[in-house]
Design goal:
The complex is a heterodimer of chains A (452) and B (165). Chain A has 452 residues and is mainly alpha-helical. Chain A has helices at residues 4-17, 23-41, 51-61, 66-83, 86-98, 104-120, 123-140, 145-156, 166-175, 179-204, 218-236, 242-259, 265-298, 301-311, 317-333, 336-351, 363-382, 389-397, 404-427, 430-439. In chain A, helix 2 (23-41) packs parallel to helix 13 and helix 7 (123-140) packs antiparallel against helix 8. With 165 residues, chain B is mainly α. Chain B has one domain. The chains are: A mainly alpha (452), B mainly alpha (165).
Chain lengths: 452, 165
């Protein structure tokens, strides 16, 4: 009975998600249903439902939970850069920089994807925006529709693994690792991924036809890069907390837009509306996941997952491979947020006791390694047919001009490259752990979020 | 009934939007001032980061209903987009009446109770003397009340769709 209820809860969640109700509502509904079963069977007391309010209020109002307040600020920065066209300047500046070399337009698209995607915050926003301005440019330079669409999907999803991408905040939080440590852990895998992408883009690259219209305003491009690098540097050097650095970057974006005379009521209104709606979407799912995981744990869900990890052996690799496969499979159907806030805390809490990363000698380093692997697995799932999220976005942004089959075909080489990076990081944990171990004091523990 | 839908949606959208216009700039400015003050050696005792946290909580809570009315909450529509309109409306009605409204009721009751206790105890916000904690706590029931208004509008809209067939 102990393991049956949480298993049924997961099954009910999977089925109820198909109803088309908002994901947060489904999470809360399934939690309520199973909470009433738990109340009837005596596994839960009525007054324990009151804990839901205190968990929500405590999380959103805790000054130490700097992670959460940074989210709307980063979204605002991305919205301002997008609405003012400062982000678009980056593509034309990169196109000019790489314009004359073989594969130049592809290199420009990848460079923009790596730099700009974190600012856009969500994979949807970054891939959609990139597709709008990069797809026509790549087609004009003679790239086939499959090559161009695959490249844009891969470049757009780089935001998932590039610091300070919002997904990394939530992955770090779910696993219980310091956010700056995960930022640093992602740098080497990201560099390897970019190197593979660039090599492939060069090998497949077409000779540029003519010149792109160069940016009239290279300052805007430099500013976007400066905001990203500055934000990560402030956090890693300990000069500012995450929310402070995000606030400085957001204020910097607004100030730059003002100086470029592009900040007006329309732009500000659009940025505020986009920030409010996206934050509400993110945090409503967060509330839903919090309620779901609260009931799931009361019903013995954590023990169920731990028993599953234990059954796969204590050597480390088998439970890790199973968890990565599960995350990858979930990523075929769900957006990253649901996976990260529902599945990751439970999986991470099961993996570490199962001995995963024990050789690394420090729970934070083990967390960095596991977090990096999860992030790469999630990014890969966005690109994998038939349901890869980024693939649909590119197809949609092309207004149906690029058939879905072409997008799939174009993305396949990038999926293979990502799997190679995933294997490399799995085989050589130091790719993810060396940099944080050198730069940060990792002796301060940070426990998993939903383990209480 | 159509009028009631418009009024309920307008309440959640306008209040959510007004709080976002005030809260997002305040959240950013207050959090950006704190490190600058620290770097120039001005001891602030963190009133700015407190203000930023309150602005964050207020904006997030007030936006739940705004996003619900604007249809911005993410849904998995792989299967549901093939549902006939009547089935989709029935599911929406059941989800709102069975899940959204009870959740909102629970959070409004618990949130008001928590704010009232905080008021009676004279609870202060962290180290900062200027903010009474009950005002901060009040944002949770207020946010869920706005979500309840948007949810009711959604339920009425679904009822109308069912009635029209």
């Amino acid at each position: 009975m102990k393991l049956v209820l949480p298993a049924l809860m997961l099954l009910a969640l999977g089925l109820a998600l198909l109803s088309g109700l908002p994901v947060a509502v489904v999470l809360i509904g399934v939690a309520f249903l199973f909470a009433s079963i738990a109340l009837a069977t005596g596994a839960m007391r009525t007054d324990e439902l009151g804990a839901i309010f205190h968990r929500l209020y405590g999380t959103l109002s805790d000054r130490d939970e700097v992670v959460y307040a940074a989210v709307p600020m980063l979204l605002f920065m991305g919205a301002v850069l997008h609405e003012t066209g400062l982000a678009a300047n980056l593509l034309s500046a990169c196109a000019r920089a790489f314009g004359r070399v073989r594969g130049g337009p592809a290199l420009a698209t990848l460079a923009v994807g790596a730099i700009q995607a974190p600012a856009a915050g969500m994979i949807g926003a970054s891939t959609g925006a990139l597709a709008l301005y990069a797809l026509p440019a790549l087609r004009r330079h003679g790239y086939s529709s499959a090559d161009a669409a695959g490249l844009v999907a891969a470049a757009g999803s780089l935001g998932a693994v590039a610091p300070p991408g919002i997904m990394l905040f939530f992955v770090a939080d779910a696993i219980g690792v310091q956010v700056p440590a995960l930022f640093l852990a992602m740098l080497a895998p990201l560099a390897l991924l970019l190197a593979f992408y660039l090599a492939f883009a060069l090998a497949r690259g077409a000779q540029p036809r003519g010149e792109d219209a160069g940016s009239e305003d290279p300052g805007g491009a430099l500013l976007t890069v400066g905001l990203m690098v500055g934000l990560v540097a402030l956090v890693v050097l300990g000069l500012a907390t995450l929310s402070e650095a995000a606030a400085l970057a957001a204020a910097g974006a607004a100030l730059a837009a003002l100086l470029h005379r592009r900040l007006n009521r329309r732009v500000l209104g659009a940025a505020i509306r986009q920030t409010a709606l996206l934050s509400a979407m993110v945090f409503f799912i967060f509330v839903g996941a919090n309620v779901f995981s609260f009931v799931f744990r009361l019903l013995g869900g954590a023990e169920m997952v731990a028993a599953g990890a234990h059954a796969l052996g204590s050597g480390g690799y088998a439970p890790l491979a199973a968890a990565l496969l599960l995350v990858f499979a979930l990523g075929l159907f769900l957006d990253w947020l649901e996976i990260v806030v529902i599945a990751l805390p439970v999986l991470a809490a099961a993996l570490i006791p199962a001995g995963v990363g024990r050789d690394l000698g420090n729970a934070q380093l083990a967390g960095c390694w596991i977090g990096a692997l999860f992030a790469i697995a999630l990014q890969t799932s966005f690109l994998t047919p038939p349901f890869g999220y980024a693939l649909f976005l590119v197809h949609g942004a092309s207004r149906g001009e690029v058939p879905l089959a072409d997008v799939w075909r174009g993305a396949m080489p990038y999926v293979v490259l990502q799997l190679l990076v995933l294997l490399a990081v799995a085989a050589l944990p130091s790719l993810a752990t060396w940099l944080p171990a050198q730069v940060l004091d990792l002796s301060i523990p940070k426990g998993p979020k939903f383990s209480e | 009934m159509g009028h009631a839908v418009r009024v309920l949606e307008a309440v959640s959208v306008r209040i959510g939007s007004a709080v976002a216009w005030l809260g997002i700039p305040l959240m950013i400015l207050a959090a950006a001032v704190e490190p600058v003050a620290r770097w120039v050696g001005w001891r602030t005792d963190a009133p700015f980061s407190d203000a930023s946290t309150v602005a964050f909580l207020a904006t997030t809570m007030a936006s739940f209903g705004y996003a619900y009315a604007a249809g911005a909450h993410v849904r998995l529509d792989l299967v549901s987009r093939r549902f006939p309109p009547r089935i989709a409306a029935a599911i929406e009605l059941a989800g709102t009446l069975g899940i959204v409204l009870p959740l909102c009721a629970l959070m409004v009751v618990d949130g008001l109770d928590s704010a009232w206790r905080s008021f009676l105890q004279g609870e202060r916000w962290a180290d900062t003397a200027w903010a009474a904690q009950w005002i901060v706590r009040l944002w949770v029931p207020l946010g869920f009340a706005l979500l309840m208004a948007a949810g009711l509008a959604g339920a009425l809209r679904a009822l109308l769709a069912l009635a029209r067939g």
